[in-house]
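Per-record layout

source: Nestor notabilis
name: Sulfate anion transporter 1
length: 689
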Amino acid sequence: VLMERKTRVKINRKQVMLANLRKSCSCTPEKLKNFLMDFLPVLQWLPKYKCKEYIWGDVMSGLVIGIILVPQAIAYSLLAGLKPIYSLYTSFFANIIYFLMGTSRHVSVGIFSLISLMVGQVVDRELLLAGFDLNDDASPALGDGSLQNDTQSNTTAFNLTIAGMNAECGKECYAIGIATALTFVAGVYQVLMGIFRLGFVSMYLSEAVLDGFATGASLTILTAQVKYLIGIKIPRSQGQGMLVITWINVFRNISHANICDVITSAICIVVLVTAKELGDRYKHKLKFPLPTELVVIVVATLVSHYGKLNEVYASSVSGAIPTGFIPPKVPPFNLMLRVAIDALPLAIVSFVFTVSLSEMCAKKYAYSIRANQEMFAVGFCNIIPSFFHSFATSAALAKTLVKTSTGCQTQVSGVISAMVVLLVLLFLAPLFYSLQKCVLACIIIVSLRGALRKFRDVPARYHVNKADTFVWIVTMSASALISTEIGLLVGIGFSLLCIIVRTQRPRTALLGQIQDTNFYEDDLEYENLSSVPKVKIFRFEAPLYYANKNYFLKSLYRLTNLDPNLEVARRKKYEKKEKRHLKKGDHTTANGLGIGETTLQLVPKQTDFQALVVDCSSILFLDTTGVNTLKEILKDYKDLNISVLLACCNPSVIDSLKRGGYFGKDFGSMQEMLFYSIHNAVQFAKDQK
């Protein structure tokens, strides 16, 4: 049976593009309204807000997230290498902007540990290149954010051009300048990706790559916090091998550990871990999570203040956190070129985490999001706050889960969280002056529990899929031992390499017939399959292209126990010997046999089939090499009087074969070479003489 293909209507692509361009460039009031509604989704859902039904859940979840956000923001400033005030700015502006532009009702956007780490690594590198000392315990810079030469905090000053004016910039000013430039460029990348619809880039970050990256980065974060836990002063390592170098420095200086910090850290970790475990065990009974971090910070601040831990025991503290807002400034353009490459992985990771969490929430609560709009939302969550001394943001898994579990209904909860942060910014920030840095380090480390627990899932992951396990291990190791950015690239590269290897050496099989049916399966995998007399059925479970052509041929020859090239060569060799003997008038061959007996021996014993059926159901596509390979086996087997039949080809494979001339110029022999089922091909082969 040869099915008739539908006639495709030819599309004039030039006319279509011009029509789309005219449509895009036209401006009408209706179109402008739709654009605004799409660009600011809050205009669509806020007028439909069901106040009585939603307000209680939004207020409760907003308050809880705000209470969690404040201590985490202060803590994550250590990761970013910046002052706590900038983390609070970041948390405030991100929540407001995502409220206006986001399409997810539940995701919590703000400061995130992995993003803070990536920002911090760039900040530290640039500070080091500019000649600044990375010692955390240098006297704090001016809290008003003015661009003065801060000789107390650092002896090095750096000329920074802002708004066309040259000014000398101290360490803190230069650090936040790097962070805002990096954030601005990352946001621009995300907006451009949204404009050109490049969201598909996230498809190359598989779950194994993301999990491995998160776990490797978590090990780096943990390592960076150890010096705060035990109160030692070691240089902040930079570049490749940071994790190993930091641990070497920790063990070299462990004898100088601050006993006060060690005891405080031990108590805080025990309290935080115990509270988290109890919260996980009884979460179905609790209406909202316990604000353990806030309680620990308040108690630790009071103990540090009244116990004078900084003065008596030299325990490192957070220092002065100014209130109010620093006047906005344009991110320094002369630093943007320095961080342009670093901003690209930051933009991709930020977007991927946000979209994946948004899709998870949308699927759970049965609504839809727009991935492209999420790209714009995250992009502007970076671009706009960069003018207000903020750094890069992303959706955070832990806070999103808390948000959904506390009754969140819409992004109104984000506004409530922003108000809590604003309260701290305006009035409460100075109260955290005496807060020990080791307490903040404890909060960061305990927040990594989820990522570090991935190590327990390795056996189960290995049982499900070995290749994904190796991708996870390679990505995690590269992210931890080399650097986070290189680890991400290594993970993507290794993941793609695994896919290529799988298609290079796919499963191949000879099929047997399931008794009393028209179906065929792998002879090595199933019992009680019957072989088809005089017919070999070969299955290749991958696309056939240039990289696996040789494997295809080797597998075919091995499973059928016949290499047509060798067999043809062997026959030609015998024919030459026969001609030589006949010329001499000898009627016996070189083997001492008669001519009739030799003719029989020329037919090899292993040629026990007269037709080869190739099951193409798993061949997704053919390239030029693939088409030529099939033409090659067609010719080689034809020389041995063995017909080659193709079965279960999809339309794209058939089109490739037609264009490659497999069926001849007029496709006249197509009905005798192509079949829509294996059984049809087998029946045709049996009917052949």
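summary: The chain has 27 helices and eleven strands. The first strand starts at residue 109 and ends at 110.
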